[in-house]
Amino acid sequence: MPLVYTIVLLILIVLAICAGRELWRGAGWLRNRLFPGNAHRRKLLEKSFAYYCALSPAERRRFERRVADFLADKEFTARGDLTITEEMKTLVAACAVQLTFGLPPVRLRHFRQIILYPEAYFSTVDRRYHLGEVNAAGAIVLSWKHFVEGYRVPNDARNVGLHEMAHALLLENRTRDDGEYDFLDQRSLDHFLECAEAEHARSQRGEPALLRAYAHTNPAEFFSAAVEVFFENPAAMTREAPQLYGALKDLLHQDPARRAVPGTSGV
Ligand SMILES: [Zn+2]
């Protein structure tokens, strides 16, 4: 084939790809008709999830895909008088995606069970009331009331959803049996642990600590509490513990301090 035909053919192929992408972008209404569940989920995210609202259109599509992937193999169970709704599923998934959005796709596959209680629940193991927990057998447990509160007050550095997802993330990273294993960069994780140690030493010396006392129970609790502050009060973390902020930024590949996330969210 003469060179000129080859060039013309290549140009036509590129133009066709560009036109196809534009058509796909512009045909949101068609997508919504073909996949009405997705449209409903999108509305829920727009209404209730500030993190999603601050994303670019392309990032929003990626976020939606990850929400759908997360939900693909999850089984939700309600306790007490709670009824599981599409909104609950979407927002729990969105919470997991928020935490893992900078990482290669991670669905927390080991955790197939999501158990929702209407509010704080009594644990017969330690005879205390819990707001949430993660168990190694593969369940993420949350008080729905407190999950909602975690997002309703977006800057108090308390978010039980992110806290439990952070526990699940560390466990998933060490779970070999489901294809999601060792996805966190070990050097970044080591650096985070060094910073955590330094913060812990500061608190032991009685110096003002950024994280609440409970964070100093053990490294896993420190990670979960640090994740809450990282997303909910990144300005304080960059100011008071810049090394810790940098370590989490490198580990999660996210920089919430530089992203203007709207301050209100009505879950
Ligand atoms: Zn915890």
UniProtKB/TrEMBL annotation:
<dbReference type="InterPro" id="IPR010384">
    <property type="entry name" value="MtfA_fam"/>
</dbReference>
<dbReference type="GO" id="GO:0004177">
    <property type="term" value="F:aminopeptidase activity"/>
</dbReference>
<dbReference type="GO" id="GO:0008237">
    <property type="term" value="F:metallopeptidase activity"/>
</dbReference>
<protein>
    <recommendedName>
        <fullName>Inner membrane protein</fullName>
    </recommendedName>
</protein>
<dbReference type="GO" id="GO:0005829">
    <property type="term" value="C:cytosol"/>
</dbReference>
<dbReference type="InterPro" id="IPR024079">
    <property type="entry name" value="MetalloPept_cat_dom_sf"/>
</dbReference>
<dbReference type="InterPro" id="IPR042252">
    <property type="entry name" value="MtfA_N"/>
</dbReference>
<dbReference type="Pfam" id="PF06167">
    <property type="entry name" value="Peptidase_M90"/>
</dbReference>
